[in-house]
Write a structure and sequence with these properties.
Blueprint: E1 8-10, H1 13-25, E2 30-35, H2 41-53, E3 56-61, H3 81-90, E4 95-97, H4 101-104, H5 123-126, H6 130-145, E5 149-153, H7 157-169, E6 175-179, H8 199-204, H9 207-220, H10 226-240, E7 244-252, E8 266-275, E9 278-287
Parallel strand pairs: 1-4, 2-3, 2-5, 3-4, 5-6
Antiparallel strand pairs: 7-8, 8-9
Helix pairs in contact: 6-7, 9-10
The protein binds adenosine monophosphate.
Adenosine monophosphate (AMP) binds near residues 46, 153, 179 and 192.
């Protein structure tokens, strides 16, 4: 049987920084995959892509408290570090960086990264402060690992756009790569938070993506107005996700995240829905250019 290489588990700030900077100095290309752990096929797809495109792959595993609001699921967030380490090893990851909160945030830590404007849209409205926490921790991870590439999932479209903007604005020498959403066989976007769904809600959850696909087909049929498209999708959700509650459903510009009244060129239809204990997000790219 082929032996999997050993993944190094590093929790110390100095050690990860020394290792990654040394790799860079030796001429190796380094990829970073930031995660909050509880790995699933979506995480693994990012690691595998990184494995295929760089010499060294670092995965960070950190449930970042600063991106959770009061009353959100920080304490309940699913964790299984041993299983994660085994899966990272299987995926060919070189280093798993798993710091504790005290190591990541020095006492009296008071410096924040805010990506103004973009952080107020979509999820930013119902999760104030969330993207400030995300941008800050990603900036810290970029400084610690100095990656040539950083790999993110398109499932969290707003996060990807914000991290890209931050890397550009702050001149990080890091290319931010977005990878496709991995889905269950029934179309539900794979997510660590899907464990919150009871069987009844799990049965309704795939309709979130079906509604987005419905929108794409309506556009193919010639619909262009955002309010008309969204009304049809809302109607579908009302019938197929009766236990859910919409947080938002918006047709936005893919880079600026501004709402579009009328579809032109490229857009993203993004949705957030509360279903039982879970808050699910998903999106679909809609293009008139294809
Ligand atoms: P998380 O651990 O949920 O913070 O996610 C870590 C990374 O995995 C982020 O870049 C996510 O966008 C990405 N990710 C989460 N779910 C998926 C998925 N279903 N497909 C692809 N990437 C994903």
């Amino acid at each position: 049987m082929e032996q999997c290489p050993v993944v190094q588990i590093i929790s110390d700030i100095e050690s990860i920084q020394t290792k990654c900077w040394a790799w860079r100095a030796q001429g190796a290309t380094v990829a970073l995959v930031p995660t909050m752990g509880y790995f699933h096929a979506g995480h693994i797809s990012l690691m595998s892509w990184a494995r295929d495109h760089t010499d060294k792959v670092v995965v960070s595993l950190f449930v970042n408290p600063t991106q959770f609001g009061p009353g959100e699921d920080l304490e309940a967030y699913p964790r299984d570090p041993e299983r994660d380490a085994a899966m990272a090893r299987e995926a060919g990851v070189d280093a798993l960086f798993a710091p504790d909160t005290g190591a990541m945030y020095a006492p009296e830590s008071s410096t924040w990264v805010g990506v103004e404007g973009l952080d107020q849209r979509l999820c930013g409205r119902s999760r104030p402060g969330h993207f400030r926490g995300v941008a800050t921790v990603v900036a810290k991870l970029f400084n610690l690992t100095a990656p040539h590439l950083a790999v993110f999932g398109r499932k969290d479209w707003q996060q990807l756009v914000i991290v890209r903007r931050m890397a550009r604005d702050l001149n990080f020498p890091t290319q931010v790569v977005g990878r496709p959403t991995v889905r269950e066989h029934d179309g539900l976007a794979v997510s660590s938070r899907n464990v919150y769904l009871d069987p009844h809600h799990r049965a309704q959850a795939p309709n979130l993506y079906r509604g987005l696909q419905l929108a794409a087909s309506l556009v193919e049929e010639g619909l262009r107005r955002s309010d008309e498209i969204r009304a049809r999708v809302r109607d579908f959700y009302g019938r197929t996700i009766p236990d859910g509650e919409e947080d938002y459903l918006e047709l936005v510009h893919p880079g600026r995240l501004e709402p579009m009244e009328e579809l032109e060129g490229e857009a993203v239809l993004a949705v957030a829905y509360r279903l039982g204990k879970a808050r699910l997000i998903d999106n679909i790219r809609i293009s008139l250019d294809d």
